[in-house]
Amino acid sequence: MLKKLAYKKILIIFLSFFILLIIYLFPESESQEFNTTLTYTNPKTMPIYLIDNNNLVSRFEIVQKSNDTLDMIDEVINNLTINNNDDNDYIPDNFKKIIPENTKIITKDLSDGLLKINFTKELLNVSLENEEKMLESIIYSLTEIKDIKKIMIFVEGEQLNKLPNSKKTLPNTLDRSYGINKVYDLNSMKDVNKVTIYYISKLDNYNYYVPITSYTNTKKEKVEVIIEKLKTAPTYDTNLVSYLNASAELLKYEILENSVNLSFNNEILSLDDNSIIEEVKYSIALSIRDTYDIYETIFFVDNILMDAHFI
Known about the structure:
The protein is an alpha/beta fold. Helices cover 23% and strands 28% of the residues. The chain contains 5 helices and 13 strands.
């Protein structure tokens, strides 16, 4: 009997040891926490200039698929060409492409900021009413690419030196000084001041920018004209607006080599959060860029630095 109890005790000890050994070697699975971070990245975009419902050449953002300059040129022209669905099919119906259907790039060469681009003859199929808008669309879209400053356009190897229908003579090289959506308010040919102003238009809930090149008679500095025009709605198109408060005053300005300093009173600030709203900064900065070829605009309010906006 004692021997049986001893065997039983030994068996219990052995089983207990065996169970402990199993637990040690094969621990209970524990839930493991993994630190994961979901990163949402917005696709990189670049602006092109399409025709909106008001028949104005307008700035629209498309997805940028390449960082290579020559590839970006192809992207731009593809997205400006009628019935070319290779890229960015999401462009709303309210915006129209303007380069004639079946137009292709034959060759392109970029050197020292000058782009020489050679198109097929289909480029010349543009209508009289659209030929200048097409040129503005091409110039403004391509010069949004940072490496391109000037353009020479060729058709089947021959330089385009006149518009195909009106036969208006073109400069030898084309840049943003050509103007866009041009408006003339002139009394004489003296003291002609040319500025390009970026107003805002709206499509559903989407705000987009519409540049207007205005020719007026004034001796005022161009930056003063820009601010004055942005403080009042343009009379030539009631669909365009500016968010710059009419009470905002440009107190002083300084035009430097690479930047423009603008100092305003506090009427430029939003009542909601005491800041300059993005649409105001962008309208002013884009207008400065196109008028002065300066890419940085620095905003002061009552001599306090508020923001530096680089386009």
